[in-house]
Amino acid sequence: MRDLRRGYGAAPWHLLLLLGCFAVAGWIALRLAGEASAPRMLLWFLGAVVAHDLVLFPLYAVADRGLRAVTADRVLVNHLRVPALGAGLLFLVYLPGVLGLGDGTYVAATGLTPRVLVGRWLAVSAGLFAVSAAGYALRRRRR
Amino acid sequence: MSPHPPPTGSDERATAGPAYGFPTGLWRGLERRRPPGVDAVAAAWRSPVRGPWLTSVLGAALLVALPLVVVTGLLDWIAYGPRLGQAFPRDVGWLHPPVFDWPTRPAWLFRVTQGLHVTLGIVLVPVVLAKLWSVVPKLFDWPPARSPAQVLERLSLLLLVGGILFQTATGLLNIQYAYLFGFDFYTAHWYGGWIFTVALVSHVAIKLPRMVTALRGPGFARTPVAATTPEPPDRDGLVARRPGPATVSRRGVLALTGGGALLLAALTVGQSVDALRRTALLLPRGRRPGPGPNGFPVNRTVSAAGVAPADTGAGWRLTVRGADRTVALDRAALLALPQHTARLPIACVEGWSTEQTWTGVRLRDLAALVGPSDPATARVRSLERAGLFNQAVLHAGQVGDGDALLALRVNGVDLAPDHGFPARIIVPALPGVHCTKWVREITFGGRGDA
């Protein structure tokens, strides 16, 4: 038992737990393997990880480095960071609406044609920046 | 959980030198052979707030909220009626929750469960992103593993992270009718959900003791940015080796995450609350299709359903079949039957809902015209020829509910064509897609108590 623990690198229940997890995932993979769209599902599953870890994260990390290279004022940095993150979050979550994506299903389901809501998104984002700027101005005045 | 004493994780090195699993030579060699760039990346993590405490607080929030999303998702599948062969995906093998007949009371049940599933799924996006940010240095760790246990655990993390991102992406696209992915949503979201769930259970079982330890230790909820310093080096390597000065406190990160969640909540709840409808600024269900009593959101238009005006005109007849006889009723005959009015929500699988006042004939009164008034099932067929939801089966409890109607009018006027004129089904707590529109035939079968 001790050899297993040392060789494996964790307690036996750790191995059993993860084998159980992979058994379910493997069963699902086998079940879906027959579907014509299975490769697309796999692509989206792995693509989502790549899109987050290797695209989205580096993108916002680099943007933040850039911001901090421009100004060393910590308060100013945060007053820019917060609305920028808010705007980015809204863009990410409501992307189809903002860009007016949505195919025939949109029309069929709602009876409305998709509208490009980029104006609304810009307005909300501008609002976030304005509130943040007002907060910054107040802080400066108090100091 | 395990009877073994902690430490419970796969990474047992603590502060002593790294321990290698089998085969030792492989892991040691891997550690020595450092690809170009890994040292630069390891040194590049500068945030002093990353560490066990922040990750654990975010993890605890997700540990409370994500099971709610999972359970309400499974309830949605049950609400579709797997016993009646109506749940999607249909054939799921042994991998499903216990099945039961979806109740009709409280009438807001599906509105709440599905609204919670979708709204919470959206609101948790910033929490998930913050949690991933807090642990992202681990992704670039070298060596990637020091034992078979770590290899397996990292693979399970691929399922965990892939699972939550896949579920979020497919869910968000589905509720906004942007089917960019090109596969069946039901199948993908169902199995994606299971993969995520098993990976989450594994992750929680492995990491829970770590989380509890970190949360029991010194807290940082009151530490201002000026006093924010890194935690001591941890065995998971979350704490930066070369931290920079703090630009934000840990509570600042949490406030920012919570603020993002609140912002999303504020822009999402409008799709489920009629009075706030317009506040869902960026969602399809924040739009009102028009003014007047019929100006509430539509699910599937009459033209998309291919139902022609000629089909629903004066020649329209409702065929009601039962154990004893079959009758055909025109709209005047239906309006001459006892009318019942009920204020009921209609809630969609996409999370939006609306409450309206419906008037029509009780389903059990219709059943009584052709046989026993407590039938075991009712199969409702629409004039719609194609389409996944051109028919639906209701169980005894749904047919027998006093507010279960074949609605002819809504808010005091005739149903609009898009809302199912000449007649539609409305049943308390029934998923919207089963509230069949443009009904042409109802077949009652069996007896309820049989």
Automatic annotation (TrEMBL), chain A:
UniProt keywords, alphabetically: Membrane, Transmembrane, Transmembrane helix
Transmembrane regions listed in the UniProt entry: 12-30, 42-62, 82-101, 121-138
Official protein name in the record: Lipoprotein
TrEMBL record, chain B:
Entry-linked Gene3D superfamilies: Oxidoreductase, molybdopterin-binding domain
Taxonomic superkingdom: Bacteria
Keywords for the protein's UniProt record, in alphabetical order: Membrane, Transmembrane, Transmembrane helix
Signal sequence annotation: none
Pfam families noted in UniProt: Oxidored_molyb
Alphabetical list of InterPro entries matching this protein: Mopterin_OxRdtase_euk, OxRdtase_Mopterin-bd_dom, OxRdtase_Mopterin-bd_sf
Gene Ontology MF terms: oxidoreductase activity
Segments for region (Disordered): 223-242
TM stretches of this protein: 53-80, 115-136, 157-182, 188-206, 252-270
Domain Oxidoreductase molybdopterin-binding as annotated: residue spans: 309-444
Name of this chain's protein: Sulfoxide reductase catalytic subunit YedY
